[in-house]
Amino acid sequence: MARSARRWVGVVFCAAACAFPAAMSRASDLFVDSGQRLGNEVTWSVALGDVDGDGDLDAVAANYDAGAIVWINDGSGCFTDSGQRLARGVYVALADFDGDGALDIALGSWDVPASVWWNDGKGTFTKGVFPSVTGCFALGVGDLNGDARPDIYVGTVAADRVILNAGHRTFTATRQLLGNGPTAGVALGDMDSDGDLDVVAAGWDEIGRVWANDGAGNFTQLCQIDAVTLHVHGAVLADVDGDGDLDAFFAIAGRISGHNVWLNDGAGRLTPAGYDLGTDLQQGIAVADFDLDGDLDIALAVGAGGTPLPSRVWLGQEGGFVDSGLRMGEAFAGGVAVGDLDGDGDEDLFIDFLSLPNEGWDYKPYPNEVWLNTTNE
């Protein structure tokens, strides 16, 4: 590998946890549980960004059972509930959709229509008008048609949708219907090196695809991904082999090893690298250089019904990845987001949780957790 249902509202009392990390339980030398237990909802995904303009990363948690929650960071990685309850959602993305310099929110879910929320610049949100899109399984945000405004690619239960940002807080749904089955992992990036954003849309009981962009937001199939049995639940892009193009990383819930990492041939065609990241039921994935050694590492959010399985971190090394030994959380992890939460220059983790006592769909609330990176301590 190249070197390259009791809801907590108000203040979260985490001062002791932040002040005395040595007293906390360490699963490894890489991350430490901050001790925070944030909210008590069925949280499926989280997005990080500076929503209140104070220079640190806040968090927006998409909750299946309750409105999305905006968590405000004090700069040290300690979060407080802003008190806002937005729409219910399962998937969340942040972007400055209206060009005013503040991050707005897009929410999607498989059972309620997608929505957009406008930021007043201080982290307070009001609901906007959005095209009717239902059955959302994944969201991807980026400038798809070259007008310097972030657009939205929606992976759905049936056929994917392309929603273009028309400016002035308006969106237009194009007539494109991409694919013909569930897409549960979406990532945007220039896969064929032609200067525009393409789409990796990984299937859930469905063939995955790399969609090539013509630069105007029109897509044609570049290649297929054999994802029918993988049950992909999340996707990110990064250059893992140092050859200058974007490779794909998938969270896989199909209990199949060797298919988490797919290498790009430079023209946007993907093949599995064969790296073994285990066969846990993976619900979310994040990629960064956690230990600052120049290699990309992987955080996998693991979630299974019945006996909960801890989430894991895999460290990059020459020729593949090795299990760090880190075990995070004691519940079903719906997803994981990465960012420098405490401002010390290394990448931390915000892990969103729910509880699934038995196999099936009877989701229960569970608090979210923040795990702080100790590399720069």
Biggest sheet layout: 5 strands, antiparallel
Principal-axis shape equals globular
Using only C-alpha atoms, the radius of gyration works out to 19 Å
| Number of E-type strands | 29
Q: Helix-strand pattern, N to C?
A: HEEEEEEEEEEEEEEEEEEEEEEEEEEEEE
Mean pLDDT: 91
Helix tally?
A: 1
- Unreliable residue runs: 1-27
Distance between the termini: 26 Å
Residue share in helices? under 10%
Q: What class do helices, strands and sheet pairing give?
A: mainly beta
Strand content: 35-45%
Can you give a write-up of this model?
The protein has 377 residues and is mostly beta strands. It is built from 1 helix and 29 strands. Helix content is 1%, strand content 45%. Strand 4 and strand 5 (69-73) form a beta hairpin. 53% of the residues are buried.
